[in-house]
Amino acid sequence: MALVTSTEMFKKAYAGGYAVGAFNVNNMEIVQGITEAAREEKAPLILQVSKGARAYANHTYLVKLVEAAVIECPEIPIVLHLDHGPDFETCKSCIDGGFTSVMIDGSSHSFEDNIALTRKVVEYAHAHGVVVEGELGTLAGVEDDVKVSAEDSSYTRPEEVEEFVEKTGVDSLAIAIGTSHGAYKFTPAQCTRNEKGILVPPPLRFDILEEISRRLPGFPIVLHGSSSVPQDFVKMINENGGKMPDAVGIPEEQLRKAAEMSVCKINIDSDLRLAMTGTVRQFFAEHPDKFDPREYLKPARANIKEMVRHKIVDVLGCNGKA
Ligand code: G3H
Ligand code: 13P
Ligand code: ZN
Prior knowledge:
This protein has 322 residues and is of the alpha/beta class. It has a domain at 7-180 and 211-228 and 250-269 and 311-316: Aldolase class I (TIM Barrel). Helices cover 46% and strands 17% of the residues. It is built from twelve helices and 13 strands. The strands form three sheets. An eight-stranded parallel β-barrel has the order 1-2-3-4-5-8-12-13, surrounded by ten helices. The protein has a three-stranded mixed beta sheet with strand order 7-6-9, with no helix packed on it. Strands 10-11 form a two-stranded antiparallel ribbon. Helix 2 links the parallel strand 1 (20-24) and strand 2 (45-50). It is globular and about 60 Å long. The termini are close together. Bound molecules: glyceraldehyde-3-phosphate (G3H), 1,3-dihydroxyacetonephosphate and zinc ion. Glyceraldehyde-3-phosphate (G3H) is lined by residues 24, 50, 52-53, 83-84, 143-144, 181, 224, 269.
């Protein structure tokens, strides 16, 4: 199967009450870990590349790695998506350079400017057979070099979504309902403790999601900032010389609930990074004499694979849907 757009994927996901995982890729081992899990679980897949990934690994290397995954996994549909496209030029470069989907992130602009920018990207993308994700609302957390504090974040306003979708022609919409970018969400100070003394983050605003879905029936919604910050990997990092602060990610059962609703794409990046870093740190703690990258990247790739398998089966529900 060649690279595909997300159009059919999202139609099936919406109707089937599951979501497709959108995983960020930055190097070969991450691409391999994700795609091996998706292939074994027969899951549709979105591989996404940020501006920072293009700066780190180079556009051509990343496109060719994803094309290699398409050849190795002919049974599953794969989308190559630009994550958080910051401007028209970056989106155009990815559309011209083999991507099948782009996000234009106009969420830091005014509503009117976001519409104008998104419309411009949609016109160019659709003329080239590429689909577009837009964003309304602002997530807290760190993405690329932009850090948004919890106070400066803002939920998506449901009363704006129909006008935005109609005027821009976007194919999917990322919304802010309380998820947050990065591995430092949420601090103990932002959480409450349940009756067992366990830290619980502020719940996602399902009321906003429901209202948006009511206004946009059948329209695919996207959740960014959906890593759950697995505590076993945080522990693995901290027991092997790291210093990750206490943080509680998005509870997986809340993501599962969102996937059963109108959310068709769930973005996960930080959890991949935690798996890779924890594994590499543990490897070096146990084998201080080793220096072959193949030896420490192999278990890191294997742990990414198992983590992605868990997301596909237990969180997204997209196993067997390829
Ligand atoms: O939401 C942002 C993604 O996690 C990408 O992160 O810009 O560090 O590649 P990055
Ligand atoms: P996390 O930082 O929660 O993994 O979010 C990733 C993301 O939204 C990529 O766009
Ligand atoms: Zn994001």
